[in-house]
């Protein structure tokens, strides 16, 4: 179970017409998706495509559209396009801070069609080093890691995007859960939630990794991989 398998399953289940990916980077996920959608939209302030992938964008763009801008700029500039067909499936894997991730999700929700899904990567950091926020704190972690002072350091960085999922868990109009696989795959769709997190947004903002470690299952509604398929089965049975 990984993010590509999850997105492919959702594209198929929703019979998606529009797929939006925030944070495309090298195109690892984007170019792995060959679903017959009307539009595949790639957003990143700096694409880092390998040469063959870059050549494909020029010679055979097909149904793909590329926007080399920040996600905030994309949503500000492309309102008319997004209103036309909405979004059926979105993948958010941009700047790994909870504030930007939350903003990206909220922007996607504005155009999310009924029955649509938002997938978020890196929701379940395994340790504090992996979760450290961008900026001075992250730089400090990197310096310590380079000196071998962090035993559990793997080189991976999820940031604190888990807080964005916890914040959405306070809403009564969204179903939100996290698949315990591939660094945590957040799933968001419209609907009545299984449970609601009874916390204020400022309280979640003030939390540290220790808070997540103590209450991981409730804060991000962590579920085993098989739950994803059970959830879809139940949703499409209705």
Short key terms for the protein model shown above:
8 strands; globular; eight-stranded mixed beta sheet
Give your account of this protein's structure.
The protein is α/β, with parallel strands linked by helices. The protein is 41% helix and 18% strand. The protein is built from twelve helices and eight strands. The protein has helices at 3-14, 51-59, 71-77, 79-85, 98-111, 128-131, 136-146, 162-168, 201-205, 209-214, 216-219, 225-235, and strands at residues 18-22, 39-43, 64-67, 87-92, 112-121, 174-179, 185-190, 222-223. An eight-stranded mixed sheet has the order 3-2-1-4-5-7-6-8, sandwiched between helices. The chain is globular, with a radius of gyration of 18 Å.
Q: How many H/I helical runs?
A: 12
In the predicted model, the low-confidence regions spanning at least 5 consecutive residues are none
CA(first)-CA(last) distance? 25 Å
- Widest beta sheet: strand line-up: 3-2-1-4-5-7-6-8
Outline, from the CA principal axes?
A: globular
Class of secondary structure makeup: alpha/beta
Strand runs, count? 8
Q: Mean pLDDT score, rounded? A: 92
N to C succession of SSEs? HEEHEHHEHEHHHEEHHHEH
Helix proportion of residues, in percent?
Answer: 40-55%
Q: From the alpha-carbon coordinates, what is the Rg to the nearest angstrom?
A: 18 Å
């Amino acid at each position: 179970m990984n993010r590509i398998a999850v997105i492919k399953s959702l594209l198929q289940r929703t019979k998606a017409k529009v797929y939006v990916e925030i944070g495309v980077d090298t195109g690892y996920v984007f170019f792995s998706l060959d679903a017959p959608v009307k539009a595949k939209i790639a957003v990143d302030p700096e694409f880092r495509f390998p040469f063959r992938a870059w050549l494909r964008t020029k010679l055979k763009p097909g149904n793909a559209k590329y926007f080399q801008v920040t996600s905030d700029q994309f949503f500000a500039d492309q309102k008319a396009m997004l209103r036309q067909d909405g979004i059926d499936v979105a993948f958010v894997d941009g700047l790994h801070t909870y504030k930007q991730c939350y903003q990206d999700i909220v922007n996607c929700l504005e155009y999310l069609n009924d029955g649509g899904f938002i997938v978020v990567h890196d929701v379940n950091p395994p340790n504090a080093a992996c979760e450290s926020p961008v900026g001075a704190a992250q730089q400090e972690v990197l310096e310590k890691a380079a000196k071998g002072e962090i035993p559990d350091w793997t080189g991976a960085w999820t940031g604190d995007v888990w807080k964005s999922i916890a914040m959405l868990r306070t809403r009564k109009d969204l179903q939100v859960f996290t698949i315990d696989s591939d660094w945590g795959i957040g799933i968001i769709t419209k609907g009545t939630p299984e449970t609601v997190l009874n916390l204020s947004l400022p309280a979640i903002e003030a939390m540290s990794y220790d808070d997540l470690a103590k209450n991981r299952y409730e804060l991000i509604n962590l579920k085993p991989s098989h739950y994803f398929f059970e959830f879809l089965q139940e949703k499409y049975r209705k």
